[in-house]
Amino acid sequence: MYVFCIVPEIITGLMTSGYGHCSFAQSWADIVDSPNVSTRYRSGGLGKRIVPGVYRVWLCDGYDTCHGGVLGEDMMCYVFNEKLQTFLPIGPNSKVKFVASGVE
After folding, report:
1. Which pLDDT belongs to residue 49?
2. Which residues pair with 98 in a beta bridge?
3. Most buried of 5, 8, 58, 85 (most Cβ within 10 A)?
4. Residue 11 belongs to what H/E stretch?
């Protein structure tokens, strides 16, 4: 079974090409229960880019090297689809700028 999801333009405007192969399979419960949650992850709201009931928050993972970078040098970022309960890859933080410089 295939699930097709139409991604609103306001979110696709954030997306950087070449990261469709990336995935994040953990749940929010997994993230919260992670022993290194405070050093590995950063998250926040999408602000004016919120799509009510679908996309409200982003998550960046400092241990995810899917973007081709070196572990610890950049974070891979995702937006959370509330309807499908899945994370959509957006791109590395160096491109999407979710996490403020110096916080990583």
Report:
1. 84
2. none
3. 58
4. helix 9-12
Which has more pLDDT, 14 or 100? Answer: 100
The CB density around residue 99, as the number of other CB atoms within 10 Å, is 20
pLDDT tens column, 18-69: 888 899 999 999 999 999 898 899 999 988 888 888 899 999 999 998 887 7
Contact at 8 Å (CB) between 104 and 92?
no
Sign of CA dihedral 70, 16, 79, 57: positive
Burial of 90 (0-12, 13-18, 19+ CB in 10 A): buried
Q: Indicate if the alpha-carbon torsion angle 36, 37, 38, 43 is positive or negative.
A: positive
Instruction: Delimit the domains of the chain by residue range.
Output: 9-96
Q: With 60 as the cut, is the pLDDT of residue 5 above it? A: no
